Automatic annotation (TrEMBL):
Protein name: Uncharacterized protein
Keyword Kinase: yes
Keywords, alphabetical: Kinase, Transferase
InterPro entries listed in its UniProt record: GHMP_kinase_C_dom (IPR013750), GHMP_kinase_N_dom (IPR006204), RFAP_synthase (IPR004422), Ribosomal_Su5_D2-typ_SF (IPR020568), Ribsml_uS5_D2-typ_fold_subgr (IPR014721)
């Protein structure tokens, strides 16, 4: 499948840095009010993905964290070469988060490899074109829009005729910079993975209809509490809104993920944090990573200390602090300054 695009002056090597994202919840998972899913999410400054791609004699992948990751990248390279042509490319994975933890690692890896490839091939393509080609964004558009823009985002989901495998990326409805002073405590259970692949598809199919009243409530919650909270830097409104959204959507997914949180250990640690700090508590995507939004650095350090104390007897729990990232991915050619992802 050849994609229409202009020819660019190709570099010899390209490095792409992409941010991790937190998926903060769906608004209407099964289109009870006419549009499916709809998502709110945030890019963060930790757990990012970095790959370097260069021209090579043969297609190859170096530095992959697992055979599954290697096979995924090889498949991407085959799809990209079929679409854009070009000479063989070697991809080195310089940095990537643990897979299936709720940080959007699969989409960021795909978009990073795709962005590097099209630039090495001297071609132009939008992030949405690359996402469609590599079959990303079937439900949420947060990872795709986060790759382009960063910040706090809301996408509009899919229309009522949505079907799995749809080529259309959910539209970006809202994007706002995340306040510089606010922090995010991340709590990961390294002994677990979130639902993914066939298991995820079966889980979604097993769920009952999402009540229209709840979809209406979440829509109002996002529009009239969470987004004004971000726009006006009103932390309490934002944190309470996120907590209520998470509790509501988590209860809906509980039958297939084992509870409002997929990891009881993460739930316990975040409960200890919520007992001593005003925080927006939840789980990103299918987890197991949970989060707590905190009002500032001092509150975040206190929350981190509480989380570490609460997880002292839980060796699989890893805790860290992140800030929001208010810019998209960037790329740089060999011996050149780095560029924004939509730079030619």
């Amino acid at each position: 499948m050849q994609m229409p695009s202009g020819r660019l002056s190709p570099p010899s090597a390209v490095t792409v840095d992409a941010a991790a994202r937190l998926h903060l919840g769906f608004i209407d998972p099964n289109a009870s009010l006419g549009r499916a899913f709809g998502s709110i999410g945030l890019t963060i400054d930790t757990h990012g993905t970095r790959i370097t791609a260069r021209h090579a004699d043969t297609m190859r992948v170096e530095g992959a964290a697992s055979e599954a990751q290697r096979a995924r990248i090889e498949r991407y390279l085959e799809q990209l070469r079929s679409a854009f042509g070009g000479s063989p490319v070697a991809v080195e994975v310089n940095e990537a988060p643990r897979a299936h933890t709720g940080l959007g690692s699969g989409t960021q890896l795909a978009l990073a490899v795709g962005t590097a490839y099209v630039r090495l091939a001297g071609r132009g393509a939008t992030t949405a074109q690359i996402a469609r080609l590599l079959e990303r964004g079937a439900r949420s558009g947060i990872g795709i829009h986060g790759f382009d823009h960063g910040g706090l985002m809301v996408d509009g989901g899919h229309d009522a005729n949505f079907a799995a495998g749809s080529a259309r990326v959910p539209p970006l409805l809202f994007r706002q910079p995340f306040p510089d002073a606010w922090r995010v405590l991340l709590v990961d259970d390294t002994s677990r993975e979130g639902l993914h692949g066939d298991e995820e598809r079966r889980g979604l199919a097993a769920l009952g209809a999402f009540p229209r009243a709840l979809a209406a409530h979440l829509s109002h919650l996002v529009l009239m509490r969470i987004l004004p909270g971000i726009a006006e830097s009103d932390f309490d409104a934002f944190a309470k809104g996120i907590g209520e959204l998470q509790q509501t959507i988590g209860a809906y997914f509980a039958p297939v993920q084992g509870g409002v949180f997929s990891s009881p250990a993460v739930e316990s640690v975040l409960g200890a944090v919520a007992a001593v700090e005003t925080a927006g508590i939840g789980q990103t995507s299918w987890g197991p990573t949970g989060f707590a939004f905190l009002h500032g650095e001092r509150q975040a350090e206190r929350a981190l200390a509480v989380a570490r104390e609460a997880s002292r007897a839980l060796p699989s729990i890893a805790c860290s602090i992140a800030t929001g990232r208010n810019r998209g991915a960037n790329w740089r050619a060999a011996n050149q300054e780095k560029c924004g992802i939509d730079a030619a």
